Known about the structure:
By secondary structure, this protein is an alpha+beta fold. The protein has 19 helices and twelve strands. The protein has three domains: 191 residues, no CATH class; 163 residues, no CATH class; 184 residues. Strands 4, 5, 6, 7, 8, 9, 10, 11 and 12 form a nine-stranded antiparallel β-sheet that branches. The longest helix has 34 residues. The N terminus is likely disordered.
Amino acid sequence: MSGxxxxxxxxxxxxxxxxxxxxxxxxxxxxxxxxGLAWYGTFSRVWMQWFPAWWRRDTPxxxxxxxxxxxxxHGPLVPIVALAIAFYxxxxxxxxxxxxxxxxxxxxxVFSVFLLAHLLFTFASVTFASGFALLGVMIGLVLIWGGRPxxxxxxxxxxxxxxxxxxxxxxxxxxxFELKLFASRAALWIASxxxxxxxxxxxxxxxxxxxxxxxxxxxxxxNVCGGLRSIIALTFFAALFAALCRATGLWRWFLLLMAFPxxxxxxxxxxxxxxxxxxxxxxxxxGEHGWFHDLSGILVFALAxxxxxxxxxxxxxxxxxxxxxxxxxxxxxxxxxxxxDKVAAVRTLNPGVLVVLAVSAALSVYWVNQPEPKAVGGVxxxxxxxxxxxxxxxxxxxDLVLDDQVLxxxxxxxxxxxxxxxxxxxxxPGFDLLIVFSKNNRRGTHSPELCIQGSGEKIVSKGPVxxxxxxxxxxxxxxxxxxxxxxxxxxxxxxxxxxxxxxxTTNYTVQQATILLHGLLRREAVGALIxxxxxVQDEDLEAARLLARDAATRLMPIIDENLP
Length: 564
């Protein structure tokens, strides 16, 4: 008979640890206190990055919840959900355990490796990696305490904690823009062919037909709306649904794999709604802080939940048709298959573990409370002259200003951004030069391609070039990277290089690793982005390329001498 009509009965939990249940808590509480101290610095920084406006009493609640890296707004909910699931598991099976020499050895290996990694990352102020190390430490702990049965029972709430640690922007920005473009184009096709809304996608912008007064309407698709940022939160809720659904066996994994495409589909639906609303109701309604924009941000999660329910119902319906038992009315039914000893199987008061955790907590608190190196203000300004001779011409400059949002992303205000124009005013093109300097901060030196694409420009070509500057370790050549972008009929030539310590590189990952290594060695983890920009005139790309290279040849030795 089908399992749909006769749900599986609840057997007596096999691993309930009645005899030792009271003795479990002192060790768990002590370990939690030490881990809380060890990871306090990590998560206090991370949480303030999630919600930078928490301390601002004059900021509305909605702005506090969506400020900063708002693709992790769900972050603080994750440990609460994980703790609730862990409590439910304890009420079902208690603490099933079976410690063996093999499980203890494996547990100590995992525990030690990840705890050491946490200490190194804390020492170097790599907060996201320290956060992920917590998961490995917890897996090692449960292996030491109760072997494989305890680990299998409590693996789900531990793994869910993965979603509470924000990934670095440098990791996700590379695919974030492509995801946003994909979602925007798909939404545009739906809006045009189904809802009859005329619109064009241009980078991060959706260009709509003019309003009744003939004024153009433009809808900006923010990263939070269209890219990886909202997909991460949606994937967390969809993954949680897959873990708690009524389907059994491999069908849970199917639903888990469907979490990502469901999140993308919901994003496309949201952007479609924003385009249609902007066309009929105006961009004030559909744009950022508009009522439809904010409402759609909530409804998209309801849509994701509905789609997951629909997929689950489809699986169960298919099981009925094929007369297969794919239905389980029990919540986390796999718990009843876990076998463990009932007496003295779990030991949480492990002196060795507690001593190691206590020492780690003391070191972490000490390093976190060390004063930050004193910042040297205006370093970038001092590195660049205001007047320079390039080729046969003399160029003078005026300062440009980066807006507050860009500076907030870079987490540094030490920069110089100057526009150089020919002093003789002969009509020759000029150039812009940007230096972003950051001390003990790897986010300040970002990949220029991300900003170029984010501004709506299309990269038409890019590649390495060699400039004769004589600054790269005393040699005669400096490897730089050129990028050519186009926005409509406007073409721009970029030439850039990263500096970290005394070395130069065009590889962003190498530059970040060098800064990290300096941090681990307690050297000054300084870095800089140096970028030249020339607007191509009369489609003469070679003239722009020649001017940028001449400027780099003249200016890079000066920058190298003045930039620490």
